[in-house]
Amino acid sequence: MNDELKKSIKAAILSEYKLIICIFALLIVFWDFINTLISERIVNITETVPDDNVFVALIFLLYPALIAFIRFDFLKNETKKISQRHLWELSLLVIYLVFELSGNFDFYSFWGISYFTYLFIGLLITELGLYCIYRKKYKLLADLHEKTHPFFIDAPTTDDSYDRKKFLKTLLDKILSTFDNRYAVEYPNAFTILLSESFGIGKTSFLFQVKKAIREEEYKHKIIYVEFRPWLCEKPETIITEFFSVLHQELDKHFLLPKGMFSSYLSLLVENAPNTYYSFMLKSLHKKRSLSEEHDRIMKFLKQVDRPILISIDDVDRLHDEEVKVVLNLIRDTADFPNLFYIVAADKKNLCLSMERLGIKAPERFLKKFINFECLFPANDAVLKQLFREKLDSVLREYSCTGSKDLIINSILEIDNIIDAFETPRDIVRFLNIFTFAMDCIERNEIMNEINVADLFAISLIQYLEIELYKILRDDDGLLLSYDNSTKSLSISSSYKSVFEHPIFAHINENTNGEEHHIVISDIDDVIADISAKKQTAYRYVVDFLFDQQRKDINGYSMRYVDSYFRYFAFSKKQTQISGAKVRTIFSPAHEELHKIEIKDIILHDQESSFIHNINKWYHTFDDSKIEILKKLSLFVSLLYELKPEVVNTEQNQVKAQIIEYFMEAYDIHRLLAHIYFNELKSYPSAIVSQDETTKIYEQDRNDFDEYIKTHKYEINFISLVLNKISINKEYSLLGEDNIEKWSRLIIDHYMVELKKYDKEHTFSRNNLYTISHVAVLDTDYWIECFKDYIKGCPYFMDWIARVASYENNIFDWNELLRQLLNFPHWQNCDIWKQIITNSNYKENPVLTDLMEILNEDLKSLNKSTHPYLEFVENYWKNNDMYK
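^ thats the sequence. predicted structure below, dont judge the formating
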């Protein structure tokens, strides 16, 4: 039985149980009389109904359906599972069964079933029909409501979370002690207590506790409690009449009051009220009497009461200025009434502001005329922090964060000085309403597993503390945040770093300036303002927590990552974002046949950045092996080239090798794979791991990579760029330094085999030349030796020679681009070509002989007419498209 059903049953029983019990009690008490009445009177009437009649049975059966049709509009809006109607139907069934089982009555029937039984059968069918017709609709609505959680209501309570029971008892005992001491005072008068705590500290809840203690507990017969609520009055002048009306009504419960005891005194006070039409009418109702006579009569009566009269006045600081004035004057005009104790709950600061607006120049001094004792709550160690933790724990349980709840709470508590963000329990309640609203939106959009709850908490806290800062982060994040390429995350822009940096770093910077920081404060008000301002800087700790702080809970869905940032403000993913679950599915052996379709769909929907982001953050959770991740990333790059080559924005047309390199760099794929193949055993500098241990742990990954290289089924540009990036820090790679060197040479060897098969057009295409640049960097020395060996018997030897120098605009120069593409060191370029010419079969050729001489001199100073090589270059460059 779920909670909703329990609540419905409880509500139905509580609303009707008294009447139902009365009916059953009457049946029991008057059972014999009812039996006689039915037998002698009612049975005679029922004899007119024919027995065993199908028409009558049908009427009884259909009667509930007819009533349901008449009451259709009411019933269709019924949402409770058990209502009062169901309770009465059950009660009638019980009464009928009592009569049936007693055997005193022979009910008419059809086919042996009484007509009344048909009535209850029809009732059951009707109720089932109503349930089937409408319950689905309400279930859908209920499901929507179930996916949200109620707001926290900021209401007063008698729960003593601040452990003020002893404080309350002391205050009430002091009032009793003062009352008992009244005979020692020659002229006893009223005593006024100002409960002057700030807004949200719990003044109203404390008054509720006072009320409960006096009316229900040990002080029930010791103190008379009068609750005066001036804010219920529509106009200032009605406050006076309401006060005496409430006082009269409460005293009347305990004493026999003299007739019209407060009337004349009320008339006098109304005389001083603002002269409006209402007050004029009120004044005319009271006959003026002697003030002293009526005053003495009230004084005499109040002196005779056997217990103190405690009058509470709450939220005085929320009244309009004129109303505040009336209430204070009311306390003043009753100040000499004995045995009255006022307890006034008001924020003293706001109260003084109201009096200043009323023209009172020294409100604090003015208040002393009214207040006998200014009361403050005692300090209570860590209650606010405990309350915060309890409510946060409760909230996270409601959102099914049980498994990770403690981790989330510990992460949230890493926000330095977080309790400074909340001055009162009311602040916690208001903030949690913001946080739970965001959580509901996240939960309803079914992305709870794709956010960092601690980050959502933090950005909700910024919304609570500095809503304008929240709006900037939501609408114009580029103004405050910048992208850090090294961490691939967002951080506070350097322009505003000093504003939002963690206060501890600001303090360090101040100390390093070599000058002591002196605080110059002119008066006490400035001191208070300065300290308050420092407490309000809690949002700086929160910003640092979101974008800079080193945290254990950072994951792929943290707010500091571009791919996740949007969802913390929209509570949903962008159309260009994909879920981590989908990416994990792609990198799963069970999804092998469909992964190409899925990756193509990702590219067509502009989700490639999100795709790479999710791989970067979740690759360690993939079912695929590292080599399968590499293969699918290679496919991803190839599909990018196939589907989006136009993305590469450049003035000249790009070839495949360049486009692949662009995409590799744009999405940092080679760096990603370097991380995937990172040797975790060497994560810490102090870690000493033998080569044998490393080989044993990563043996399968190395074997996979080795087999992949040997198959030659890879995209040459992709694998070259990847292996080159890995080799930069090969000592930290799980592949092993020796293996990286071996595979680099295998790739070069394989490429050289293919290069020898190319025709002239393919060999000197820009695409192939840029592919050479990717292959050549794998192992420069080995590549140069391979190239020397290749070109020695190459049918396009003279074509290569023609490209050693360039000819453009009648100017000869060494072909720097070719040198770079071949990865020849600048200082070795000429020497390498000398070696190539020396070892060639054409070394006696005049062009080559001339080139050998030119390689030893400055090319630009030569006269081309005397150099066969320069003439050869000029003709070749004029007759061939060198940039195809």
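The chain has five domains: 3-146, 165-375, 383-570, 625-778, 783-884.
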